[in-house]
Amino acid sequence: MKKPPFQKVLIANRGEISVRIQQTLREMGIIACAVYSEPDRTALHTLQADEAYPLGPGPSSESYLRIDKIIEAARTAKANAIHPGYGFLSENADFAQAVEDAGLVFIGPTADSMRRMGNKLSARRIMEAAGVPIVPGLTEAVSDPAAAIEAAEEIGYPVLLKAASGGGGKGMRVVHSSDEMASAVERTQSEALNAFSDASIFVEKFIERPRHLEVQVLGDGKGEVLHLFERECSIQRRHQKVIEESPSPSIDETIRRKLCEAAVDAARAVDYRGAGTVEFIADEDDNFYFLEMNTRLQVEHPVTEEVVGVDLVAAQVRIAAGGGLPWKQEDLHQRGHAIEFRVYAEDPWKNFAPSLGTVHRLRMPVGAGVRNDRGLREGYQVPVYYDPMLAKLIVKGETREMAIARGRRALADYRILGFIHNLPLHRWVIEQPEFIEGRYSTRFLEERFDPSELASNLSAEEKDALAAALALVEAGVGETSAGQGDTAPELSEWGKKGRAEMIGRCL
Ligand code: ADP
After folding, report:
1. Domain range for residue 421?
2. Among the atoms of ligand 1, which is closest to the Cα of residue 241?
3. Between 20 and 30 A from 146 (CA), which of 9, 125, 213, 322?
4. CATH for 370
5. What is the CA(499)–ligand 1 centre distance, in A?
6. Is residue 170 part of a domain?
7. How many angstroms separate the alpha carbon of residue 211 from the centre of ligand 1?
8. Are 177 and 295 contained in the same domain?
9. Which atom of ligand 1 is nearest to the CA of 212?
10. Residue 373 resides in a domain
11. Is 201:189 a contact under the CB 8 Å cutoff?
């Protein structure tokens, strides 16, 4: 066996992505070290790791976002490198710098390219200079409504106000006319300051019914860049993805080639190192524009792995260890079709509000072409502190049609009992003609989804479980009893009653 590139790697993350990274590390002969917060003491990623190191209390600001504690854990573990996963500190340039300063390898890009791509305005300027098409709009921040109105008139309404340091679908506001501008500027600026500690905002064209397309890239940090084709991520709620697929059903070979070339140019412009994703939006005439670059592993990376037949985490580790790019462009091809369904602890009956609870029963689908990346297990209590994404179901077929058939079967087999989640939503989407024909935009759920249509997707057993959950909600016990102890937030604001009525109507 080849000598492993590192002896030990610490994963500065939690949940499904920590578990997924551990699997590859183990396959490479590397000792996988996890970190965990107090409520994650018995989480799957903690239990499955070769070694696990405590970080502190539940809130991310006291655990998974603490650079000092993570570096200390890596030192205690005598790890050689840190993999940041996605979210948390993965796009924090100061963290990347601190890791290198501690004499450890950061499995990701340089702090410098993270800084340059991390700010949407700086990224827009770099892309413009590199000849990559950007969404029509400004490349400098606007500070007052008059300047924003002037820009909007030139671009044409509607426009989008966007926080330069924004992320996670937050810090964006659509403006339809000049009289909405003053209050929109003020509100977006204050939200941006609160959420991202940076009040700068800019104006760009609001694309009415866009598709979200993105390209996976890998760079060696010396100007050599490969692409691993595109992913279509237009099934979204609240500007966040729920279903992704590869290849995109909505583009032809010519657009695909142009899109992938633009992504390679984008990554080359910053001498990108490691795995990254260049995001674009496409309008109804197939014009596509750069949105942003995510300088990390993406949640939806498995669809690319399935279609191209590679392990992206292994590639990240090899590049970080100085091994260069593992493949040549001409060796990479798309074969078959893959679709990913993100399983969230959230309530499709109640505008996707987060839900809490304990996994009383779990049965994941199995069989050919079915992959489960997951951070949950039976008995697991969904913690209140983190992103509600618990697992991802990825299906693969020789054709898109076969992938859909497999997805339909796997979703029907899937059981998570104990709390409200979004599996019924996925079962609904997969039956819609727009989805089946591959004609959908990022507005699809907002325009078409009707929760009253979900009931027909539920098995008798699921209806029983929902009825039980409903009775608890009505008795005022609800999901707050999910072992969150005294730290559980008041959940009444999520409108338990309204949701109970809604689900009640469906049963
Ligand atoms: P974030 O960094 O918060 O994820 P992005 O710029 O990547 O923000 O945009 C997230 C989503 O918001 C996109 O996938 C798309 O659905 C929507 N969006 C962003 N910019 C535009 C735009 N100019 N017009 C229409 N929709 C947009």
Report:
1. 211-456
2. 14
3. 125
4. 3.30.470.20
5. 29
6. yes
7. 10
8. no
9. 14
10. yes
11. yes
